[in-house]
Amino acid sequence: MKAIILAAGEGKRLRPFTNDRPKCMVEINGVSLLDRQISIIKSCGIEEIIIIGGYKGQALISKGNKLIINPRYHETNMVWSLFCGENELTGDLIISYGDIVYSRDILCKLLNCGEDVALTIDKDWENYWRLRNEDPLSDAETLKLRNDGTISEIGQVPLSIDEIDGQYMGLLKFSPLGIKLLRKSFTQAQNRGSILSKNPETAYMTDLIMQLIKDGVKIQSVPINFPWVEVDTKEDLTSSYTLQRISLIEHSYTSTEKTKE
I want to staple 84 with a disulfide (CB 3.0 to 4.6 A). Which of 57, 70, 125, 185 is the partner? Predict the structure, then answer.
């Protein structure tokens, strides 16, 4: 098992905190988002960590086992960054966005899912989103589940809360077969020049996930009820709700470590 962290983003909405560092390196209580993720990943026994950087990528040189740079980070999006590391898309794999922090419980629950492609979703997302946005739909996407917990739709513009059965976090797991299917969908998209009518260079990860669904791939949801944090804005970085959630994550992690001792 290895982990790939997508950390090429500029974090324009986080300026001035990102004037001299990539988005994943902004700090909460003196610890960067990336360092928090790496600690959690390693606590679950995953030692091989690949960082895909872009903006201010030199700040990531000492992070993880390998750093891959997307030199076109300023004009491409997350799918393109991921496939800059295409040679690393092998075996059992965790893929994570670089601007989130999650508890060890969340990652362990995802790792314990036996499906070929799975992603964590927050069923209680609305309460968190209302803290972050005056209108929770302004920064939300559709996510619809079938009765068996597989995802039937993701990443579209929602017209109502009812179209969101959970919040996609940006944390995914692939088996070797799942990786094979991911690479196949991306290659086919490149050949036809589009992922859901978008240029593959500028497509979002949710576009590629939705393309997998359209290609007949089963995407399993893993509902979580533990705290996690996404940092997109200056308000996210400094708000009381972020600090409270970080405290809960830290407490759950330290409690686990003490139990091991």
Answer: 70
